[in-house]
Amino acid sequence: MNNIHAFQRKLLMERSVPGRIGSILPDLDVPKQNLPRPELLRDNLDFPELSEPEIVRYFTNLSRLNFSIDTNFYPLGSCTMKYNPKINDEIAFSPGYAGLHPNQPIDEVQGALTILYRLQGYLREITGMSGVSLAPLAGAQGELAGVLMMRRYLMDNGQEQRLKMLIPDSAHGTNPASAKMAGFNVVSVPTDDSGNTNLEALRAEATNDLAGIMITLPSTLGLFDKNIVEICNIIHQAGGLVYADGANMNALLGQVKIGDLGFDVMHLNLHKTFSTPHGGGGPGAGPVAVKSILEPYLPAPIIGLNQEPNEKHYYLESPNKSIGKLAAFHGNFGVLVRAYVYIRSLGDYGLKQISENAVLNANYIKEKLKGYYNLPFDRNCMHEVVFSATKHKDKGVNGLSISKRLLDYGFHAPTMYFPLTVDEALLIEPTETESKETLDLFIETMKSIDQEAQSQPDLVHDAPHNTPIRRLDEAKAAREPDLRWSRPEEP
Amino acid sequence: MNPSDRRYSKDHEWAQIVGEEVIIGITNFAQEQLGDIVYVDLPEVGSNLDQSSKLGEIESVKAVSDIFSPIGGAVIEVNQAVLDSPELVNQDPSGSGWLVKLAPSDASSDFSSLLTSDEYDELIENEAH
Fold first, then answer.
1. B61 at the A interface (CB within 8 A)?
2. Yes or no: is domain A349-477 CATH 3.90.1150.10?
3. Tell me, what CATH number does B25's domain have?
């Protein structure tokens, strides 16, 4: 192996040389004081000792290993990262927003509250709901807020025995966890052969202990449930409430209002649908939107407006039966600013085009690849399409190998092995921003991999070959996790 | 072909009567579907399980799955080797990769509700296609 590569793999601690320094501290310009308790000072801490250029090269080289939406195509879509216009970041970083203190007097932050107030209004319009709270800090927290509101509403109406929460098996994995945290018992509802919720199974569960249903729309199969209005009716007739997981709103923006379909409560993932860099786990924003019956329960704070004759004054309020606060302050403000800028710069026409292009791009990939990969649900998809990589299993090539082989071609892997109901699932979400040229390149690559799987299965099976690190032993990493560097024993 | 000396559940567990005890594990088909198993969670010795109740969890590189007890009874032994080396379930699901031993509460009635090896072979044949 080339020595430079071995050197570049070394960790900071392994590059450390005793006594080497990266910067010189300025002379002391205040009187020297003795510590009141010098025993608190430890001198046995293991810090790396390096020069400035060594540190710069270490981090610069690490950063060059990054795979990002700014460099390559991500067929796993908004779930991890769709392209986020740079102007959103630029405005969110401006000192007037980034420099605000959450405890600043309300009169000094009227501009920031204007944005939040308007954003509440835009989200009400987009969802067709009557109340919105921007407080939840993530999609899953939005879910929790939503189901806690359902629970409180049922209790206030003498229905505390209603504890059964239905969740289709095509829902997001966080839904059952949220329902359980709010005190509900989760019952799974199967999908029928065409990918819709099985209505017969649903009706059988619509009993007098039913609290409601949590539906991901479109589902994780990338399908719009054709029975959705019927589902809402069945649940309502049985006395339950209907929750929409709006994480896949990329497919529906401006086309349909979730509230009009009959849903009572939903959350949006602003960091997915309305743009914010969020790969790696944050930050997010999962506002909840509700019909009027649930409005009194919304999490605090809600932004209110006093319309004086000559002056507007925005204020923070807590609805009278609020489930309370979800965080110390006002939600993830920077994410909310980005969503506001995104909505304002695209406008109603632009938002509609997002969903049209997201759905068109996914269907384009579906049509071009369906002769090459098994398509479990051969019908129009929404913003994502699920294939089943079972065709070459006899040659030892599965969804994992195909995903790894994509890395060799400079593409990120799609979501794999999810949804769980599809064998060897490859869930491909191109998103709305990708051009036909990029999609064609991806499609041709997927066809090449299919060809390779037939003629040279080992090439696919052992992929990746061109990446800085080759196939990782995921099983060993999970069985024997090695999470901490420790200094090797002196020889 | 699955061994004919035991019975099978539709959830892909097996149960084998050995003297007074019943040994429980997951099938070869189940371990193939799960992929590399990295963690196994099993009940405490002494806990009581109803038939079809949750026995534990298996985590693979793909997913976390519940395991259900094909028969009811009290746990008298858990396979420590599997807890230490989960890959045993991949390597030998029908043998050394067993999960727990139960003192059955009603073995004969529980067993009659399970599938024979022939019926189970047919079930997975259908699931695979």
1. yes
2. yes
3. 2.40.50.100
